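Friendly challenge for the regulars: who can give me the C-alpha cells for this chain first? No prize, just bragging rights.
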Amino acid sequence: MTPPALAATQPAADQTAPGPARRTPALFARNKLALTGALVLLVLLAFCFLGPLVHPTDQVHTDLSQAGRAPGAGHLLGTTDLGYDLLGRLMYGGRTSLEVGLAAGLLATLFGTVYGSVAGYFGGWTDAVMMRITDAALAVPALFLLVVVAAIVTPSKPVLILIIASVAWLSPARLIRGEALALRGRDYIHAMRMMGGGGGRAVFRHIVPNAVGTVLVNATFQVADAILYVAYLSFLGLSIPPPAADWGSLLSSGITYTQVGHWWLIFPPGLAIVLVVAAFHCLGDGLRDVFDVRLQKN
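First reply, four minutes later:
Bragging rights claimed.
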C-alpha cells in the first residue's frame, strides 16, 4: 500500500512532467539553426506571395526602354534584359520555384513512403522486385532523366511537378523501406495479424504513422532538392515558357550579361536559391532532433 505522503506527492510530480505536446516545441527550440531556417522560409514565402501586393509590377509586357538599368530609386534591384523590374521578377519567379518545389517534393515523399512501406512490410519476392526497380532507376543520374523528359514534353507547372517527382521518390522509398523492415516485426503488428488485419491496414494504420518522423524529416530535404531541380532545368533552358519565370531562369539569363557588369542579374536569384535550400535543410535538422527518441529522453 502506498504511504499517504508518497501518494500526495505523485500527482504533483505527474503534473510537472512535460508531455509530448510541450516537449516537441522545446526540442525544436534548442536548435537555433532550425529556428533560423523556419524564419527565413516564412520571410521568403511572404516575399513571394505577399510582396507583389506591396510592390506591384508588370511581369507580362516587356519594356525595352527600361532594359538593363542598374539598381536605383525607380527599380530597387534594377531591371532585366527585357525591362522587367527585377524585384518584382524575383517575387514572381520565387512563387513558381516554391510552388513547383513544394508540390514535387511532397508528391515524391508521399509516393516514396507508400512504395517503401509496401516493399518493406511484405518482403520476399515483392520487396526484391520493387527494390530492383528502384535500384535500376537510381543507377541513372537524376539530372539526365530530368533533362531527357523535360526536352520531350513542353514544360509547365503541373508537368514540372510530375517530372521532378518521378525521379525524386526513389530516395524516400529506400529510406522508408528500411523503417518498414524494422517495424513489421513489432508486437503490435503481430497482434494485428492475429486479429485478421490485412496488409493495407498494416501499411497505412501502423507502418506509415510510426515512420512519420522519418517521413517529415525527409520531406524537407526532398523539397529542397526539388527546388534545386527546378533551378537546374531552368538553367539549362528547360523552364516554363515566358512570360513565366523562376529563380533558375533568372540566373540563366543573367549570366549572359556578367561580362558587361550587370551583377544585379546574378546575385539576387542566386542568393534566393541558396537561402531557401539552406533554410529547408536547417528545418529538417531541427525536425530530426524533435523525432529522435534519444534526445527526447534527455
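The two ends are 31 Å apart (CA to CA). Residues 206 and 289 are 22 Å apart (CA to CA). Your move, everyone else.
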